[in-house]
Amino acid sequence: MQSNPxxxxxxxxxxxxAQAHETRARxxxxxxxxxxxxxxxxxxxxGDQIQDRPLSEVGGxxxxxxEIEEAMLDxxxxxxxxxxxxxPTVLPDGLALTAFLPREDVRDAFLSPKAKTxxxxxxxxxxxxxxxRRQAMIKRLRPDIEVVMYRGNLQTRLRKLAEGEVDATxxxxxxxxxxxxxxxxxxxxxxxxxxxxxGQGAICIESREGDERTLEMLQAIHDRETQIRxxxxxxxLAVLDGSCRTPIGGLALxxxxxxxxxxxxLKPDGSEVHDEVRSGGAVxxxxxxxxxxxxLKAKMGPGFLSSH
Length: 308
Prior knowledge:
Blueprint: E1 6-10, H1 14-31, E2 38-42, H2 46-49, H3 66-73, E3 79-83, E4 95-100, E5 108-111, E6 126-128, H4 132-141, E7 146-148, H5 154-162, E8 168-172, H6 173-178, E9 187-189, E10 203-208, H7 212-219, H8 224-239, E11 248-255, E12 258-266, E13 273-281, H9 285-300
Parallel strand pairs: 1-2, 1-3, 6-7, 6-8
Antiparallel strand pairs: 3-10, 4-10, 5-8, 5-9, 11-12, 12-13
Family: Belongs to the HMBS family.
Protein name: Porphobilinogen deaminase
Organism: Roseibium alexandrii (strain DSM 17067 / NCIMB 14079 / DFL-11)
């Protein structure tokens, strides 16, 4: 065993562990190091333990990061691997997002034994989703569908679907791909109709500011294009105070040095939606995201976000 392994903090779900293993594999390859130069440390978070109600009712996104961040600030781990879409827009003092891995497919996947697509589901079908964004978008496209709360890790949700608890569910395609479960997918929802969550498909790595050893190692696996896209998306979300209580979608695309961000915000019942598209140079990613957020705020008017 190496005397001073780099300690990688992660949640314990199969998907979280797959993401931690991918990070370790990339670090091993980049620095020509053996597996025992790294230690994967599993940390149970509040979000993993609370399964009976929507996260928005008990504290939102930070529930998946709080205990892991405490371990980093205490010096028990050196870095943490997260799904970017789980990350709050404000991080604790002393911590920063210091690397991003190349982004996976950002689309949402439709899974159902009863219909090929969301639009093909029978009238009054039941769809399970714990995401306010997906719930609102489903209701917008299919007001006749009943959307029910659907918590649990990916395997739990697949089991509930197989047992007939719901007629269909929507999951991030990236997560299914990372677990080798692409064959579970019935169809994919294109981003033109169904904008993903901010950060969907992107693995981010959080570490302590000033921890030069860790920062230097991470730079070798950092993907700049993903960071630029996420800078825009997270700036957009921050303007809208993007907690788990607001149905928000956002996606930034990079074409050379030109960045385009599309954002959307919906009422939870899907009855009202506002979209915004902003473009500009990649160097202005944060400003583009902020401008899109401010424009949507103006379109929504007062009370839109709090009227539920």
